[in-house]
Amino acid sequence: MNRGWNSSRSTRIRTAIIGIAVPLAIAAISFVVMLVWLPTLPDPIAVHWSSASGPDGFGPALLFIFTPLIITILFAIFTAFATAKLTPSGRLNWTQKAIAVTGVWLSTMLSVAFLGSLEVQRGLDDAHKAGDVLPSLLLGLVLASALAVAAWFLLPKYELVPDVGQTPERVEIAPSERLSWMQRARLGTAGLILIGLVLVVCIGATVLVWVAGKLTWLPIVVLAFVIVLVVTNTWWWIAVDERGLVVRGILGWPGTVIPLSDIRSVQVIEVNASRDFGGWGWRWGGHGRTGVILTSGKAIEVTRSGGKRFAVTVDDAETGAGVIAALLSRKPAQSSGKPS
Amino acid sequence: MLFRIDPSSGVSIFDQLSGSIRAAAIAGKIKHGDRLPPARELAKSLDINVHTVLRAYQVLRDEGLIDLRPGRGAIVAQTPADGYQNFNAAMSALVEEARRLGIPPAALAAQVREAYQ
After folding, report:
1. Residue numbers of the domain that contains B29
2. If B53 and its partner were Cys, which of A17, A51, A268, B39 is the partner (CB 3.0–4.6 Å)?
3. Max Cα distance, chain A (Å)
């Protein structure tokens, strides 16, 4: 009776320490160190290196030293939300564990990289003389990866939770009838807010670089890429017909078609975007599970002939799944009876 | 929404398609402001000619049920669902009875058409 409660308490404590407290502590310590270094730094400091020959971007130090802390805090909030609901036996699922570990990796990587790039500037009167930062980036990568691996083993074993889905009610279909179920879907509010934040950060960063007079093609390419992602991942059409399950962004890309012949079974599942897939958009949920996850709620989930699963969240998922079930039930008769 | 056509029913496809959308509007399954699939996508989905879909959409536009705007696709303009309670009730009763008697959908449609003319 008590075991579920005990294990959920232990999971919560370990997740809070490893996935939230440790990353915050790492970022806080590096923040304090950078703050202490502040008087010894040139003004402005070097913030961007594009080759070994020296820095080529400069900016105010105070803004720079806040960056790892702010990103770590935002990610810790995301981790807290994503791990709020544990599996029925009080453990983490694969995605939740991956999120917690990513927090450790991210905070270590950022802290070491930022510390390293300030360290080479201490005592300089002009940031142009700053040395190379590549060694500290490599050190950050190694340290972050080592800590992430340690975090993975310190967290409780993840639990594979089978989807408890509902078998959809088969939609009626006459032998000669053609069905098409088409539904428009939009990225949910939570996803829109996140995408908006990313967009604001990208635009802000581009403007900062531009003001610093160092606008190269790189930030513009990044910004354009993010805008393309926003447009192509916000509105979708989901269709079910003789072609199978067709999921396509409003501009026709990205998209996928899962042919009926490749669908072994279909069910309607309840999806929690951050807990089950670690966010929104085109997601990989671990263990052969992918999905176009636009919002938390009902989703059509098909199991492919190889055992892999694909889920798409959509309004009226019951009808869509019901049409797949109807078409599947008709398939053998049709393929043997109608030459095409 | 769910679109149904039956190429073997003898009724022209565009007529079946516009009927299918009209029925969804009457039953309240699609609402004011809803967007119908782009004609090209729906044509691909049903494996029919895109002009057939466009013709069905034009019929519905002429009835004032949808707005067709270049580049924006087909948007449901008004739904007649409000005045249709009796109609919807009679329709479910009819379908229920047809099911009981084992009359297939195509045959029921033919019966209704016959009775109407």
Report:
1. 13-116
2. B39
3. 84
